[in-house]
Amino acid sequence: MTSLRKLGSSDLQVSTLSLGGNVFGWTADEAQSFAVLDAYTAGGGNFVDTADTYSSWIPGNVGGESETILGKWFAARGNRSDVVLATKVGSHPEYKGLAAATIKAGAEESLRRLGTDYIDLYYTHHDDETVPVEEIITALDQLVKEGKVREIAASNISPERLRASIDFSEREGLARYVALQPHYNLVSRDTYEGELQDTAASAGLASVPYFALASGFLTGKYRPGTTVDSARAGGAAQHLETERGQKVLAALDEIARERDAEIATVALAWLASRPTVVSPIASARTVEQLPALLAVQDLRLTDQELTTLTEASA
Asked: Is the pTM of this model over 0.85?
């Protein structure tokens, strides 16, 4: 049995790899998505991450496509209680922002699409600074009291607003954030390290980083002179032109060769070892991409290997 990690101060126990649901209904159709979800859970994974807006950016899509596919998969497999399900509110084209009424309506829509009566972990997708943290937390607390949400979390939020949210929860005895979803990986450390990470650590929050593989750059498939067929190729390839990107790739190559591991596995293992990080998020549009991701559950890097990567990415 794969060892699970405790998610912050909550009772949720999650696998070391969180499966990103952004590709479901985007680059992976329903059949592909089902196959990836089956392989992920068979491989010991239990933590699936989606959002109400996935994938509204695709022409013809309206948002909610990923949740809808997940709902069909839960219904087909009868395994809802085996999976820790995370989704987000605030970015759906019809439910934008974090006003109390928007949070409530967005949650009802997510529950309907997912075909479930509860969400394990509910994130505010992007902070909405036009809404007081008191209103946001009170609305989220109401969902917890109603049994529709088990735990709450935040993503894309400033250290100041995060601290204010936690202080309000503690002062009023309301539901409190247990996790934070930051942008964080070997080639993007300043997006989390520093004040935001310090705030998360002092509040005992679990970090669940997104872009854990830098849109695919940290899989090692992007090399000078190569062309990659991916919807995200542009974003990933830009790291090739930076000194940091080249140093990180060289360090990953060396450790992967010595450990007989995939480059993606090594990159995820570094991230999973970082302070506060519990479960990095990575997505797979095919079953073939999954083994390298799931292998993070079993790869423990040595102190020297971790130092090599930390220095290369500085």
From this structure: yes
Residue 2 has a pLDDT of 66
User: What is the CA 49 to chain-centroid distance, rounded?
Assistant: 6
From the centroid of its chain, how far is CA 308?
Answer: 25
Amino acid sitting at position 206: A
Q: Which of 54, 95, 177, 210 is catalytic?
A: 54
Report the share of the chain in percent with pLDDT over 70. 99
Res 1 pLDDT > 60: no
**CB-based contact 74:66 (threshold 8 Å):** no
Q: Strand 95-96 vs strand 47-49: parallel, antiparallel, or unpaired? A: unpaired
Answer whether residue 3 shows pLDDT above 90.
Answer: no
192 is catalytic: no
Span 97-109, pLDDT tens digits: 999 999 999 999 9
When comparing pLDDT for 231 and 69, which is higher?
69
